[in-house]
Amino acid sequence: MKNIAVIGAGTMGNGIAHVFAQNGFKVNLIDISPESLEKGIANITTNLDRMIAKEKISEADKTATLNNISTFTSLPEGAKNRDLVVEAATENIDLKLKIFKNLDEICDVKTVLATNTSSISITHIASVTNRPEKVIGMHFMNPVPIMKLVEIIRGYITSDEVTEQIMNLSQQLGKTPTEVNDYPGFVANRILMPMINEAIETLYNGVAGVSEIDTVMKLGMAHPMGPLQLADFIGLDVCLSILNVMHDGFKNPKYAPCPLLVNMVMAKKLGVKSGEGFYDYSESRKAEKVAKSFSK
After folding, report:
1. Residues 100/72, Cβ–Cβ less than 8 Å
2. What is the spatial distance between Cα 133 and Cα 121, in angstroms, rounded to a whole number?
3. Would you name the residues annotated as active-site residues?
4. pLDDT tens digits, one per residue of 186-200
5. Which of 85, 150, 190, 259 lies 20 to 30 angstroms, CA to CA, from 162?
């Protein structure tokens, strides 16, 4: 497997493309939006520059990485003749099913189809293809270039051969692959999302404020980031989607999203991506922070 396609140039997609390209793979990065592709490449370039500043890579490594990436707005053009396609589109079941049905028609029968879904059933996604044994989950963590874990999720019919291939491939990327079974939320989000949801409930019930809740979890539980700040970085819409998948899958009220989370998503307060969530990430807030730093 040397020829890879990544579908989606957002945070996860460009991170996945970056990691493959930096490790010598030829990557086709696909997105229907030229603007998203441009932003994705800019993000990869920025991350590579940070690595150069930290003396982790050289300018030559940066050039080689960027040269390994080609961009496409056409799914048929970008996905053909690939050994592996990794889908990293929005966490929406209907969209993913449509993409995989199209991929099954576009790609060679030997091509392995992977999804970066954080909660949706691999078996369900595989069911719209004629190659369910070649469909698997590769759940990378954000930020992809830094985080070591990849959850490898087998669908009900995913073959041993494909699972072994993807486990080995993940190790080639410098990651630590961990095999898990196909249940809603898998392992990472089955544990993480109820904690985030409970933190939101704690805020909703007036037990403590945003910074106080995060401070307790950082200093008391040794978490590097508080759950509310983490939710902002994940995206509150993504958190809501994952909780809904688990609530529907398990039929258990403990996975029911907090009303505050639902309202914030409806109000488009999605966290970092929208400029505001539990914290303020707006340009005016950034300018205020810069002004304060100069006044000290």
Report:
1. no
2. 14
3. 118, 139, 151, 189
4. 999 999 999 999 999
5. 190
